[in-house]
Amino acid sequence: MRTTLRTNPPGPSKMAATAGTAGSGEPDMALVGELLEEISRHPPAIGAMKLLVEHYISVGWLDAAMENAKKLKRLDPSDSEVLGFLEILEKKPEPPTPTPIPLPKSAASSKPAPRPVKRKPVQSSVQLPGNLDSARQDFSQGYKTLRERAKVLFNDLLHLQALQKKNGLPQSNNISRIQAIVEGRSTSTVIKVGPPGSARSVARIIQSNPEKATELATVDLEDIMKWVREPHGKPSGADDDAVRDALVKRVRALESSLPDDLKIYSELALMHVEHENLERNYVNDETMLGDMVKDIPRENFYVTEDNYAWDMEELAQAITANGGVMRNPLSKVMFTPKDIRGIVTHQHGKALGALQMEQHEMSKGVRPDTIVRMEELAKILLEDQSADSLPSRHAVDEFTAYCATLPELEQKVLDGLRCPAKDSHTGQSYDFTIGEAVRDAKGNRVCFHKTGDFIKQAATHLRQSRGAPPDPDKCAVM
Q1: How many domains does the chain have?
Q2: Angle at 52 between CA 51 and CA 54, to 5 degrees
Q3: pLDDT in 10s for each residue of the chain, 478 residues
Q4: 8 — alpha (psi -120 to 50), left (phi > 0) or beta?
Q5: Where does the record place the region Disordered (predicted)?
């Protein structure tokens, strides 16, 4: 809060004149922002709210002043200052008084004063409407309609800005003005060179436009970047590291003001700004299909926590071809839970959420007896040290024969379910289903020991999916 703010506003009698000159002053948006911040941090903040009502009345924002004055009355119906505010706001304007027409000095000195003649009252060029309440309603409705139209235009300008940036063209300078109208701020305050608005105000805009959350957060971070590089319109000499630090702080501030389901969009915005403006380096320079990472369009671009950059259309196709398993197609390492949430949230990855659900449901479609058979098979494969591997071969044949007796649905689960598992020696993720692993072992394409390692982990995964603890006797390995 500013040190010049008063804790108690002047009485309503001191503002009687301001009510008659509504709209004659310019709003102090910095003061308004500080008062709103104080009200949100320390509700009900009656002193700050009174100052806000006083300022609204002084600049002619009668609709907003009335709304806040009514809130104050609900908090304290007997407050004399609040009642004075309402009396001013509800008072109808008086009709204009006639203005007398003075005679020229020369005429007054040479001729006697004529007899008084009745004249019609001179009409003022500007008159307040007789029904002020109706005028307020018309103004309020018109302003609401203007903001709705500005919101549509603002969304179009976001797309235009992305296309201009992609093609290296100068970007529109009107987007900040339109954004100010959407937010209900004075457009005159946007013209001045100054720091971007508060994170809370941006968070409120994102919450009211969740379908444009990424674009809104990206525009905000770009404004922060421009301010860090050129405060007050002059280059600051800040390097990319300083800019990145400022952006990270802004993202954390946005996240603290956003609900859980919208926090991810501020990080997505940071990802785009780093890619497009800070020349971030990634593990890969090309996509899976050979395109350059720098050429991936914004709507397809995504970066996972292992610092791989993806074209989301290519990644979604690769994950779908792999049965919906959330594994990095290049490193063969499972994606983190945070990456998985980001992938299935992306417009090109939403269909993968259904595949994840399908895999989860499939893991519940394996009967406990089958899991026991898998544990027995894994135990034999891991313990077999014979030269001819006959115990392992017999165990694989017996398990294959057992699978042939299962219902068709369960057989499909064993052939299609990809359980998360890693090689116990190398740490590399296994990339096959239970059925594929057994067939590869039978055909000598994969060694029995590695197959046993995978089958053991798959059995543990299936038990956890069913909510049953692993059988220590069946899973014991020497």
Answers
A1: 4
A2: 65
A3: 443 444 444 444 334 333 333 444 566 777 777 778 778 777 778 888 888 888 788 777 888 888 888 888 888 888 888 888 888 888 755 555 555 555 455 444 445 555 554 444 444 444 444 556 666 676 667 667 777 777 777 677 766 766 666 666 655 555 666 666 666 655 444 344 457 778 898 899 999 888 888 889 998 999 899 889 888 778 888 888 899 999 999 999 999 999 988 888 899 999 999 998 888 899 999 999 999 998 888 889 999 999 999 999 999 888 888 777 778 888 888 788 788 888 887 888 777 765 555 555 555 667 888 889 999 999 999 999 998 889 999 999 999 888 888 888 788 888 887 788 888 888 888 878 888 899 989 888 889 999 999 999 989 888 887 655 444 444 433 3
A4: beta
A5: 1-25, 89-135
Distance from C-alpha of 189 to C-alpha of 180, rounded to nearest angstrom: 9
**Domain of 377?**
364-475
* Whether residue 355 is found in the same domain as residue 369: no
Who contacts 248 (Cβ-Cβ below 8 Å, separation ≥6)? 270
Q: Give me the residue label for tokens 């042939």.
A: 404
3-class SS of residue 429: strand
Q: Do 437 and 456 meet the contact criterion of CB atoms below 8 Å apart?
A: no
Give 245-313 as a 3 state SS string.
HHHHHHHHHHHHHCCHHHHHHHHHHHHHHHHHHCCCCCCCCECCCCCEHHHCCHHHEEECCCCCEEEHH
Q: What is the model's pTM? A: 0.43
- 466/379 same-domain check: yes
